[in-house]
């Protein structure tokens, strides 16, 4: 019995040592990511606060497989590894020499794929990225846009951005953009508070914004609303087609004209699209053009959508934006000086769009004159 008791004691002590070793291993892993136990450092390294990370883990844990063996990477550390990669765009930033002892690059890559797949589950996407589907939601957006920018009927702003990636193994021509690199073209629609309501990553960098919009369910939805008589607009740049539900700037308006007034108000409101994309890329620098995502096109699309989900989580929680250093902003601007894309307009659609825009311009002009 004494021998049996000694064996049990030894086994318990051995198990305790293994547990302590595992706790130290997990702690070393996180510490070597640079983590200190403050929300400021969580946000600096992972872009989410500790509370938001816990919320994310709760959301996606049904879609994550727990570690199969003792010493495997926990779900929390898979999430931290993924967030650190999104924030920096570099494996080297999250895999220092000490960390590599515990998380190899191959393990980190698998962890990132697992978490990205979990965030891309339809239930998660629908929870955080949602285009207004009923009249009451649209009216709230119209009121917010009008209060901020004085353009009635607006529910969102739209813009496209290129996310660079390595050369794909198949259909390279679909992803080679006019700026001379391979990319996904992400078309994003935002609300006045810089939340992302819709992101389309279906097409490669060779595809124009106008084509992506013309082949989206958003266009069909807006057409249906317009046909019922509802006034509803997206605001886009001249790369998008002029439609009764898509307002783009007037070309070369006369100084002091009603068209110039319209353009000024349009530019002020549509600046939210540029700011939304700028904040998205500032937070998650894996999306910056010079980072170049080393994944296949499908995975690149999933990473973009995952970052959009996380952007909305941060934005709605009031997490402050992360400003890009000036040298990174210059690099981004240099690569992304995209030539104006010719939009695809049929004559009837173009005439309808011109008429709708003319009515809006006149309405804005009358409103301006009443205020004087």
UniProtKB/TrEMBL annotation:
One Pfam family it belongs to: DDE_Tnp_4
Domain (DDE Tnp4) ranges: 158-312
Compartment(s) where it occurs, according to its Swiss-Prot or TrEMBL record: Nucleus
GO cellular component labels: nucleus
Source superkingdom: Eukaryota
InterPro entries: HARBI1-like, HARBI1_dom
Chief site of localization: nucleus
Cofactor: a divalent metal cation
GO molecular function: hydrolase activity; metal ion binding; nuclease activity
PANTHER family: DDE TNP4 DOMAIN-CONTAINING PROTEIN-RELATED, PTHR22930
Family assignment from sequence similarity: Belongs to the HARBI1 family.
The protein, known as: Nuclease HARBI1
Organism of derivation: Spodoptera frugiperda (Fall armyworm)
